[in-house]
Amino acid sequence: MMDSTEVAILPVALNVIGLLFLSGVFSGAETAFTNLSPARIEVIKNDGKFASNLMYRLYQKLDMVISLSLIMSNGVNIFLATYLTIFFTTVFGIELGGTLSASVGTVLVIIFGEILPKKIAILYPIHFSRATAHLLELLRILTFPLLLPIQLINKGMDTMKPLNEDQERVLLEEEIHATLGIGHLQGALESKEYEMMKQLLLLNDREVKEIMTARSEITAIHADSPVKDLLLLSADKNVSRVPVFTESIDTIDYIIHTIQLAPFLTDPKNLDRPVIDFCSTPAFKIPETKILDDLFFEFQRKRLHMAIVLDEYGNTNGLITLEDIVEEIFGEIEDETDELEIIIERIDDITFRAEGDATLEQIEPLLNLEFPEEFPKHKTIGWLILNIIHRFPEEGEKIRVPETNLELEVVDKDEEYIDKVHITILEDTIEPEETPTE
């Protein structure tokens, strides 16, 4: 055993630090690249930086990056373990030195070669990937003969896919749903934005029969009915497109748009002519099992707005419009002819019931007050509750609005949306700030 003074500590420490740094770089690079998403890579590849473009090229060879990072990381760790063994056995002897080198080396590699760099890479995957891209590209070129057989093995394993395309599509959709849910919980997406995107993704899983207007609720007219009856029906039911049948509701042959009649209404005689004389658009008929997103694109391609839904026997089962599908995504769409739904109503002198999507601007005049400036007027009462308590409320939970004498009670909600809120004007006023006593 050599005297410890015969061994220069500083060079050894610097070498160990350097090896740990390299171990952390390669370990972190693997984590950083695997935490990048295809969407994020597509965004940053065009930022004009050479390193970003290099990142993109390396990401296209992710298997190679993982293999290279693992090889280099393990190689550095083996070299570090050997170096520490030589140092400790030289200073403390074989028995004690072997124990110390194994213990110290393991702790150092776990903390500084694995945990810390991987944590940094998870927090800053883009920066870490960009910083290591040049080094990885250089090593890829230098170690190409070593990586080649590994790449061939990877390609061979890629052919052994356990999932078919449909299963992969389902998994991808689940990942997108999970990502949207995380974005909603973290506040990146408001409730309405989250609901809209979720409904959009669900279109390819839902059938027409789930949202169609039922057979019993269809507004239709007989082909032999006079035009004046059509106009009266259109005005009474507040519809502009009307199915036209010949014998019964099961024999709808045409869809007539009342605007088509405008050029003919200058002659009063046309009011008594049968509707069939003015029909030119054949009814578009679909099975009740048709998928909503397929129908949406078919409507778009054929420039149609209405379809007749048939059951398995070919009988009329319902009716669906383009607006029905759009409302599934964006919610209820009202025009100037729709009756306005009451979203705020008075219960008694101090209590009001409001829909969760009622805006603060709509509520203020009824309550004869103004909300604090920190709450934008265009935001909803549901948003206000989430902003105050920073979590999703329980049904029946009461929330006091800061700087006001208002109390909000959640009276109806589903898993991810506040439906109805009771707003109570409390008798006590806002407590004044305490003034110091002399």
Would you give an account of this structure?
The structure is a single chain. Mean pLDDT is 83; it is low at 1-5, 336-340 and 429-438. The chain has 14 helices and twelve strands. It has four domains: 4-158, no CATH class; 165-205; 211-330, CBS-domain (Roll); 344-425, 2-Layer Sandwich (Uridine Diphospho-n-acetylenolpyruvylglucosamine Reductase, domain 3). It has helices at residues 9-34, 38-44, 50-59, 62-92, 94-123, 125-142, 144-158, 165-185, 191-202, 227-237, 292-302, 322-330, 360-367, 381-389, and strands at 213-214, 221-222, 241-245, 252-257, 285-287, 306-310, 316-321, 344-346, 351-355, 398-400, 406-413, 418-425. Strands 8-9-12-11-10 form a five-stranded antiparallel beta sheet, with helices on one face. A four-stranded mixed beta sheet has the order 1-7-6-5. Helix 3 (50-59) packs across helix 6 (125-142). It is elongated, with a radius of gyration of 35 Å. With 438 residues, the protein is α+β, with helices and mostly antiparallel strands.
| Number of separate structural domains | 4
Q: Point out poorly predicted stretches.
A: 1-5, 336-340, 429-438
Strand order of the largest sheet: 8-9-12-11-10
Number of strands: 12
Please report the number of helical segments.
Answer: 14
Q: Helix coverage percent of residues?
A: 40-55%
Q: Mean of residue pLDDT?
A: 83
Write down the overall geometry: elongated
Largest sheet: 5 strands, antiparallel
